[in-house]
Design brief:
alpha+beta, seven-stranded antiparallel beta sheet, 44% strand, elongated
């Protein structure tokens, strides 16, 4: 999953959960402006607020109808849930659920791009190798600490894209906040967080298939 930071009003999101002991309301923290951060923030809030004993967790998959992500959240206990209009429009949350709700999903949250390669999410190539501050370093793409601008090429992120992804890529880029930041998260290998992203460029890779490429820093 690629999660872009967007200009949406993330702080207006409200999700209310009630485990039978009283309703508690979640609103994103001040640093949340992308779906990756929101998902982590939300499950941490669930665990810290209710402490059900079974940790809340989440995974993503591809929404084949939009090219966005489906964020599946396991809550760890049974709840009654309500979500305000902002949570529904920004996160793609259901309006309500339960009682006894143990899992929920956010469908195509704002800023999400879900490549059709969930195991890898996206491929980061041409990474700069950072050498120690002393000793010899003389190779393309090798730099010393603090002088990354001397690298011979830029780091790039690339992933396959289908026709359904064309509108998704346009919409996500139009909604990105400034500076343009993205997080790349794989269910398998972890994440690269808060990368500065340049424009996303599309190139034809086959019949009905494109290759999306973005230069990144971070």
């Amino acid at each position: 999953m690629i999660a872009a930071h967007t200009s949406d009003a993330w702080s207006t999101i409200v999700i209310t959960l009630d485990d039978g002991g009283g309703a508690q309301a979640y609103t994103p923290g001040p640093s949340v402006s992308d779906a990756f951060a929101a998902a982590n923030d939300f499950v941490d809030w669930v665990d810290g607020t209710f402490g059900s004993g079974t940790p809340a967790s989440w995974l993503w998959s591809r929404d084949i109808t939009t090219g966005g992500a489906i964020v599946a959240i396991v809550l760890g206990a049974g709840y009654t849930m309500t979500a305000n209009a902002a949570a529904q429009s920004i996160l793609g949350s259901a309006a309500s659920g339960g009682p006894g709700l143990t899992a929920t999903a956010w469908t195509s949250p704002a800023g999400t791009i879900a490549p059709p390669t969930p195991s890898a999410s996206a491929i980061v190539d041409q990474r700069i190798k950072i050498m120690a501050s002393t000793g010899m370093a003389a190779a393309a793409g090798v730099t010393r600490v603090g002088v990354g601008g001397l690298a011979a090429y830029s780091t790039r992120v690339r992933w396959p894209a289908y026709a359904v992804d064309m509108e998704r890529l346009r919409a996500v880029q139009a909604s990105m906040s400034s500076p343009r930041l993205i997080t790349i998260y794989s269910n398998s290998y972890g994440w690269l967080q808060d990368l500065s992203a340049g424009p996303i460029v599309l190139a034809k890779a086959g019949k009905g298939l494109w290759r999306a490429v973005a230069e990144v820093r971070g």
